[in-house]
């Protein structure tokens, strides 16, 4: 709709105060039909206009007669009123006054209203002079009627538009959760047309404010959108936005960047990027029809077929302001977003642990540029090392701990199960123990829906990590210690490293095909920003619980999305046609993957958390003593590189983790493998991985 209006303006097809000739020779029938359609569509307005014509002529006669009715009103007024109504019914449709939709009423309709009014009054005056019974009506009556009928017609249209607009605003308010809140920058022609188009379409955007490029306009309204500040005072605007309860999800520049004051726009866009607010630009008039106007960038939030959840930032500010916070995996997709969002709440200190040197450098540079006032310390360290983790915790004594470090790629962890255990299980244990040792207020374990009824090593290790956080929280309940432990579980994160979106974007740029494992495969999806915001809210909620049992806060991700549907949507958003411009290829399910994911285990108690967009799961759990003993065995098996033992122990510890990771091998198959002398069959005397004894299992190493 917005681009359509721009195109019409560019091509000159929309002209101010111009209406096409209504009658065309040889097309009288279609013209009459069009007029009837216009009258039907605007029937209420037609009735109002006819009534206004009748009332205005009566008032004109009264005013011309010194404010009193004539001695014999019926003799003159009734014929005059009847003629006025008939003239209005005949002339107004032909003037084109009903051709415009009431929602598009604007100042440019004034000329049309004046012309239609003059035509009606002129025809009525000629008719009045021609009819004997009204021939004595003075000319002043028609002049006064014209002066009355113009504002009457205008008021009727304003009333019609305001009623329509009120209805639309009420509908918009009822659907506010389904809109993307945006801030517009600039008040030029593009902004004007964009705001107008939102009124006439079911747009997914909801402008919550405008940042002007001029001074002294703060507090004014551009259409129905409030101007919240000026780019010439960008610091004040940013400070105002920082303390808003709900941040916008997108910043829309209505003009090219070079149009705005350079220092102000640089500060604003830098702040937006630091808070994971997408910065986009509306297509300008000068770009329409050019090659560049067809280029489209696919944003992760565009992929979601549902509104993102909004949170109250005031509660989060109260939680983090002035506190020491430690984040593991701080340079990863989730960890870096956690770090940026927490930094925006002015903590006393942020301590970051990151195993990858480049990721550590990147997040440290990010904070130094966007949050230089926040004290920070970055450590290139591995949470697998308990001594290193304890040393960092003792040095900084964090109050809040977020464990986002993990190996999360299902096929990679399936190929490297020992590494998955050492990071996801042993690393989590080290962080949790260190948090308790220094008396932290809370530790939040970042988990995944793949931990539920897992068929993969990655999911099973994350489930064990959930068990450990829950067990530690139950210890807190039984002691005088204050450290709370809870987990936050969510699904796939759009745009994260190693996720589908970057892969599909690269494949689209290369011309395809897009690779999908199975046409039936579906997943839950969230944006990084949404997942992190709800994680922080869940953490705040967890701190307010008087008694907890290792709650797992499960984020509401709407309905699961088929991967093939997501692939098709991305192709369309790129302006291409699926299976025609870009093909989709099905490559088969990879090791450890499921066709669908689940949010709750059958053994978990499902509760409402009291947080919009967040539910609570209470697992049966595992006793601390058994859990510690099994984790020690897992640690030893992983350090020894014994993959079979690792999978066996995970099977014993994690309900629902089936035999997917343990493939039965026939003994004769092993005998026929001369090139692999270290492989041999071991008869088992008990159930291993769901297979009966005497089955031969493939093992590596000669242990």
TrEMBL record:
User: In what residue span(s) does the Polysaccharide biosynthesis protein CapD-like domain sit?
Assistant: 325-611
What residue range is the signal peptide? none
Q: Which UniProt keywords apply?
A: Membrane, Transmembrane, Transmembrane helix
Q: Which residues form a coiled coil?
A: none
Q: Which domain of life is it from?
A: Bacteria
Any stretches that span the bilayer, and where are they? 45-64, 76-98, 110-133, 139-160
Q: Which family does it belong to?
A: Belongs to the polysaccharide synthase family.
Q: Name it.
A: Polysaccharide biosynthesis protein
**Organism, as annotated:** Ruegeria haliotis
């Amino acid at each position: 709709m917005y681009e359509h209006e721009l195109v019409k303006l560019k091509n000159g097809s929309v002209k101010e105060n111009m209406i096409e000739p209504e009658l065309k020779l040889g097309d009288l029938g279609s013209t009459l039909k069009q007029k009837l359609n216009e009258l039907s569509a605007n029937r209420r307005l037609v009735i109002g206009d006819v009534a206004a014509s009748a009332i205005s002529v009566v008032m004109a006669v009264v005013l011309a007669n010194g404010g009193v009715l004539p001695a014999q009103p019926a003799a003159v007024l009734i014929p005059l009123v009847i003629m006025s109504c008939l003239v209005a019914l005949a002339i107004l449709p032909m003037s084109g006054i009903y051709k415009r939709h009431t929602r598009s009423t604007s100042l440019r309709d004034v000329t049309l209203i004046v012309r239609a009014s003059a035509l009606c009054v002129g025809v009525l005056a000629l008719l009045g002079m021609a009819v004997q019974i009204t021939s004595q009506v003075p000319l002043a009556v028609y002049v006064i009627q014209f002066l009355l009928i113009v504002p009457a017609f205008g008021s009727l249209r304003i009333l019609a538009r305001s009623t329509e607009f009120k209805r639309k605003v009420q509908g918009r308010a009822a659907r506010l959760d389904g809109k993307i809140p945006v801030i517009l920058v600039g008040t030029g022609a593009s902004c004007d047309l964009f705001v107008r188009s939102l009124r006439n379409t079911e747009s997914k955007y909801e402008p919550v404010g405008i940042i002007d490029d001029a001074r002294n306009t703060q507090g004014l309204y551009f259409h129905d959108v409030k101007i919240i500040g000026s780019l010439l005072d960008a610091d004040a605007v940013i400070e105002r936005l920082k303390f808003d309860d709900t941040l916008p999800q997108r910043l829309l520049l209505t003009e090219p960047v070079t149009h705005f004051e350079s220092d102000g726009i640089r500060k604003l866009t830098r702040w937006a990027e630091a808070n994971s607010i997408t910065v986009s630009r509306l297509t300008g008039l000068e770009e329409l029809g050019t090659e560049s106007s067809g280029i489209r960038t696919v944003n992760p939030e565009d992929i979601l077929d549902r509104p993102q959840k909004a949170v109250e930032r005031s509660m989060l500010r109260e939680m983090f302001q002035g506190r020491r916070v430690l984040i593991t995996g701080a340079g990863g997709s989730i960890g870096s977003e956690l770090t940026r969002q927490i930094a925006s709440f002015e903590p006393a200190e942020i301590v970051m642990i990151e195993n990858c040197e480049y990721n550590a450098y990147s997040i440290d540079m990010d904070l130094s540029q966007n949050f230089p006032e926040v004290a920070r310390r970055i450590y290139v360290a591995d949470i697998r090392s308990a001594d290193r983790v304890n040393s960092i915790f003792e040095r900084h004594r964090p109050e809040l701990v977020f464990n986002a470090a993990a190996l999360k790629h299902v096929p990679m962890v399936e190929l490297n199960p020992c590494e998955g255990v050492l990071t996801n299980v042993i690393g989590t244990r080290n962080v949790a123990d260190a948090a308790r040792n220094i008396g932290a207020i809370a530790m939040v374990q970042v988990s995944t829906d793949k931990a539920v009824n897992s068929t993969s090593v990655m999911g099973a290790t994350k489930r064990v990590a959930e068990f450990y956080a829950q067990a530690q929280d139950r210890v807190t309940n039984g002691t005088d210690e204050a450290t709370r432990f809870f987990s936050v579980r969510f699904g796939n994160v759009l745009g994260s490293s190693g996720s589908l979106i970057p892969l599909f974007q690269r494949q689209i740029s290369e011309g395809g095909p897009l690779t999908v494992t199975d046409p039936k495969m579906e997943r839950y999806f969230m944006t990084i920003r949404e997942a992190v915001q709800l994680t922080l809210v869940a953490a705040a909620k967890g701190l307010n619980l008087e008694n907890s049992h290792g709650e797992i806060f499960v984020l509401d991700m709407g309905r699961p999305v088929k991967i093939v549907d997501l692939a098709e949507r991305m192709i369309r958003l790129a302006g291409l046609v699926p299976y025609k411009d870009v093909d989709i290829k099905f490559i088969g399910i990879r090791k450890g993957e499921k066709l669908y994911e689940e949010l709750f285990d059958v053994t978990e108690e499902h509760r409402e958390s009291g947080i919009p967009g967040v539910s609570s799961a209470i697992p049966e759990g595992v006793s601390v003593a058994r859990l510690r003993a099994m984790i020690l065995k897992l640690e030893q098996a992983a350090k020894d590189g014994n993959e079979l033992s690792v999978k066996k122990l995970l099977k014993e510890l994690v309900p629902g983790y089936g035999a997917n990771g343990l493939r039965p091998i026939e003994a004769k198959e092993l005998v026929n493998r001369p090139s692999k002398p270290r492989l041999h069959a071991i008869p088992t005397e008990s159930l291993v991985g769901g297979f009966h004894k005497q089955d031969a299992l493939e093992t590596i190493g000669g242990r």
